[in-house]
Amino acid sequence: MDVLYRCALKRFLFLFPPDGVHAVFTAVGEFAGRIRGARKLFTAAYGYSGPDISKTVDGITYRTPVLLSAGFDPDGRLTRILPSLGFGGEEIGSVTAHPCKGNLRPHLTRLARNKSIVVYKGLRNRGVDALISKLSRTPRIPGFVIGISIARTNSPEAGTDSQSGITDYIESFKKLNEAEVGDYYTLNISCPNAFTGETFATPENLAKLLSHIRQVSCTKPIYLKMPINIPWEQFEKLLDIAIKNDIQGVVIGNLNKNYADLKHPEDAPRDFRGGLSGVPCRALSTEIIRKTREKYGKRFTIIGVGGIFTPEDAMEKFAAGADLVQLISGMIFEGPGLIKAICERYSRQKP
Ligand SMILES: Cc1cc2nc3c(=O)[nH]c(=O)nc-3n(C[C@H](O)[C@H](O)[C@H](O)COP(=O)(O)O)c2cc1C
């Protein structure tokens, strides 16, 4: 199936702008998810049916340890089809307190030779109320975990100072928590495409945000989506603040902002807008996962993400200390069979 994807379907799809392809895929996936026969077909082609590889992390059991990362399904439209592709869960979002159109297009630019996508979406999503309504109406597939990534509304009308940012995060968090939507929550503090920048990736502002978050009574795990371009000393400071505020885990990490990490930097758009996904994230994120596990032991759940294109890449993340892995770009470049291949490899060599 993957040879077919790489040799035929991908070549065809890559003729079209990625924003449009993504919209069509989401619509098709949402539609297919509603039809039992379609789900069965996808499961027959892509589902994992090998030995039990379920894993319980922070009290949540994942059928497989491979998740779809935040950003591919910001509005929670794919929850019924993703289990058929071998995913044990997904991180929906990032969702914001208010609907958000995102940045000027193009939101996505493929850098095929670099195996990377320039992401300049700027947190386009329908807002937390629409997400709660959507998820409440959609019957869940048993065993498929839903994490929800929360970010700050990316528009000047929602305010620009740190206090309005905190109010925005808290509004989404409280609403989701009260509606009991989502199995875990991730606070995305590291979106490189927000016009206010990464306000909460500084120790002072993160401490302020988390002191408000911890005042909300929540029984579900809370994670932080971490940046991968900051020095280790600053990363450690953020982790220390996370510990003080009872944060259970970290998703390592977000997009790479350093265009020098591209193998073919000449392919990048000239105005360099947006963070890089895929291969340019791989080594950086694995290194930070390793350091975090070495220094903090089992204190944090670690979700490893960035540049997973093969089962070996995923195993490298597990070996570095990840409890679970997430991906997006690998599925786009290598095909949806990648998830099953990772699960099969994991079943033979559980770390
Ligand atoms: C199209 C796209 C949109 C993304 N949007 C978000 C987002 O809204 N929130 C977030 O935390 N990360 C977002 N990301 C980052 C991914 O979750 C992930 O951290 C990054 O792409 C590295 O993984 P990959 O190499 O498997 O793509 C986005 C990535 C892509 C490709």
Automatic annotation (TrEMBL):
GO terms for biological process: 'de novo' pyrimidine nucleobase biosynthetic process; 'de novo' UMP biosynthetic process. Residues 55-345 form the Dihydroorotate dehydrogenase catalytic domain. GO terms for cellular component: cytoplasm; plasma membrane. One of its GO terms (molecular function) is dihydroorotate dehydrogenase (quinone) activity. Its cofactor is FMN. InterPro entries: Aldolase_TIM, DHO_dehydrogenase, Dihydroorotate_DH_1_2, Dihydroorotate_DH_2, Dihydroorotate_DH_cat, Dihydroorotate_DH_CS. It holds the Pfam family DHO_dh. It catalyses: (S)-dihydroorotate + a quinone = orotate + a quinol. Its main location: membrane. Its EC number is 1.3.5.2. CDD domains: DHOD_2_like. Keywords: Flavoprotein, FMN, Membrane, Oxidoreductase, Pyrimidine biosynthesis. It is found in: Membrane. Pathway: Pyrimidine metabolism; UMP biosynthesis via de novo pathway; orotate from (S)-dihydroorotate (quinone route): step 1/1. Belongs to the dihydroorotate dehydrogenase family. Type 2 subfamily. Catalyzes the conversion of dihydroorotate to orotate with quinone as electron acceptor. PANTHER family: DIHYDROOROTATE DEHYDROGENASE (QUINONE), MITOCHONDRIAL (PTHR48109:SF4), DIHYDROOROTATE DEHYDROGENASE (QUINONE), MITOCHONDRIAL-RELATED (PTHR48109). This is Dihydroorotate dehydrogenase (quinone).
